[in-house]
Amino acid sequence: xxxxxxxxxxxxxxxxxxxxxxxxxxxxxxxxxxxxxxxxxxxxxxxxxxxxxxxxxxxxxxxxxxxxxxxxxxxxxxxxxxxxxxxxxxxxxxxxxxxxxxxxxxxxxxxxxxxxxxxxxxxxxxxxxxxxxxxxxxxxxxxxxxxxxxxxxxxxxxxxxxxxxxxxxxxxxxxxxxxxxxxxxxxxxxxxxxxxxxxxxxxxxxxxxxxxxxxxxxxxxxxxxxxxxxxxxxxxxxxxxxxxxxxxxxxxxxxxxxxxxxxxxxxxxxxxxxxxxxxxxxxxxxxxxxxxxxxxxxxxxxxxxxxxxxxxxxxxxxxxxxxxxxxxxxxxxxxxxxxxxxxxxxxxxxxxxxxxxxxxxxxxxxxxxxxxxxxxxxxxxxxxxxxxxxxxxxxxxxxxxxxxxxxxxxxxxxxxxxxxxxxxxxxxxxxxxxxxxxxxxxxxxxx
Length: 447
Prior knowledge:
This protein is of the alpha/beta class. It has helices spanning 12-23, 51-59, 65-73, 79-86, 116-146, 163-175, 184-190, 200-204, 209-219, 233-249, 264-277, 293-301, 313-316, 398-410, 431-446; strands at 29-36, 46-47, 93-96, 102-103, 110-115, 151-154, 180-181, 225-227, 256-259, 284-287, 308-311, 326-333, 336-337, 352-358, 364-371, 379-380, 383-387, 390-391, 426-429.
């Protein structure tokens, strides 16, 4: 996780195209638009995330000596092009939907305008960061919603796809309402509360389960949570009752127990009964073990007596929808509108804006995708975040992005954020954008 120059974190064809642009002196200003073409199954919205990493990358963009030496050794690039790269910096402009805001299919979440070589090389990193973080933020938001007000904690680190993904999962899940993370480095780097209990190995290392429980609470008298399903969950619950009573005699309290396997709903009911009958109603029950938003929704609907959940693998990998059809397309070059006409992948030309309209109660009602210079009423979602290669003003902190999401999500209609078969939110093109698209298609057809 040491800091590293990320300028070479790009696909080779970005650099080969860059040299061809350079040779032909094709150096004009280009605008690229980043958007997601379609929803994964059971999705009705996306959450913007990853913008902080993108703008920091662009502001620091520079090929260092090590990168240039490596490229020279590939025998692909000319000396004059490598000299050009040595002085290359990002000098462009970025408009984007801020982190924590909701966006929808086909809406530009980011538009970048810069000399075409700069815009082209940056494509891979931009897609990489916005794709992963918006995907996980959307999945995590669904888990928080499905939990029905119960706290949810990120347990995903061990099975995320590498160290960077593990860090970004912790960050984006916290952005969308998770209460904390098991990832200690993420706690340090992002200021996220860290949460943890114990593993089955700790319990099984002792001769008796109750001895493991006693040893653990001796070290953590103020925040002990016991894992009770290593052998038999109900026996584990009764052992936890015994330890809780011993703690009470010392003026201490057992915080809770965790169940990580088996029929989680049935076991929660049985364990809750054991603690209630022992006059320990204050002891919390935490559920974990392969959970996702579908499980949480089912347990919320049946009022299963969990107080909170640890959610890991399926959230941290977005297991049911591990990718989206995200695209970064050229929409303007040298002030000329551009688009792609491949079947099923037609894009919209020109620099754009998204206009958001709400109903009389403040709920999101419909969005219009139009040209940036249009006036269509409502809120203009895309904000200018970089100009002349520099970040504009202080970027919102993670805590501020979390507050932005909380406010935005509360205004999203319930049937749009449904866990299963959500209603399609209304998104239309303005007449001016439709006309520009039709005119551009006609011009391309005549060329």
